[in-house]
Specification:
Layout (H helix, E strand, L loop, with lengths): L3 H7 L6 H24 L7 H25 L7 H13 L3 H14 L4 H13 L3 H14 L4 H13 L3 H14 L4 H13 L3 H13 L3 H11 L7
Length: about 230
């Protein structure tokens, strides 16, 4: 997804002076309040780290608010693409709940963009919500049949859901699109082994190894020696 460059180009902007003042006031008010409660014995801070983490959290929220105002408040259109970029930015910062909100808005505004479904699926995976993530990756490949990365994610998810047949199918589609994908060969080999196809698992592990995927080499040595594929 070509979002990295856009994100970097949008970086480095100066926040409004009012925004900086708000951040300072928030930090001062919270610090003063917590210090008072600590002295009064009515609030156990635990450590200075907890204070810093709380203040940092408030600052992060304020910065997010200010950046959205800067991005959308200066004559810039609030589009599906804007929400997609915003979601990706939040995803990279591991703010998954906020990222999901942004991707939801992007999907609501444009249901034909496979990128929005893909990144919403990745966010759902990060939250451990595998089944709805499968639905999003499936929508992504329906909209874009050559989306190898979405097939990779489907293969990974289906394995964890115990659906090895679907995992093999998805990974085979990925390999068909990108024959140099050592990870996909290794992953497909894992599922073939679970199905009892040891020859197929050995073949895929060797192919993954030949492509330079280290875990494939380890799996190949184990399988060649008669061991299981525990990679």
């Amino acid at each position: 997804m070509e979002l990295r460059g856009q994100e970097e180009r949008k970086g480095g902007r100066d926040y409004p002076a009012l925004g900086v003042l708000i951040l300072l006031l928030v930090a001062l008010v919270v610090t003063g309040y917590l210090s008072f409660r600590s002295v009064a014995g009515g609030f156990d801070l635990g450590s200075d780290v907890s204070v810093r983490e709380l203040i940092q959290g408030l600052e992060d929220k304020a910065k997010d608010w200010l950046e959205r105002k800067t991005r959308f408040g200066k004559g810039k259109t609030d589009t599906a693409r804007d929400h997609l970029v915003e979601g990706y930015r939040l995803y990279r910062k591991k703010r998954y709940a906020r990222a999901l909100e942004a991707f939801n808005k992007s999907v609501q505004m444009n249901e034909t963009n496979p990128e929005a479904f893909y990144w919403r699926g990745r966010t759902l995976v990060s939250q451990g919500r595998f089944e709805p993530a499968v639905e999003d990756f499936q929508k992504a490949v329906n909209l874009r049949p050559d989306y190898a990365e979405a097939y990779d994610n489907l293969g990974w998810l289906y394995e964890r859901l115990g659906e090895t047949d679907k995992a093999v199918e998805a990974l085979s589609r990925s390999i068909g699109l990108k024959p140099d994908n050592g990870w996909a060969y290794n992953q497909r080999g894992r599922n073939l082994f679970k199905q009892g196809d040891k020859e197929g698992a050995l073949r895929d592990a060797k192919k993954a190894c030949d492509l330079g995927f280290e875990e494939g080499c380890k799996a190949y040595e184990r399988l060649k020696g008669g061991g299981g594929d525990s990679s």
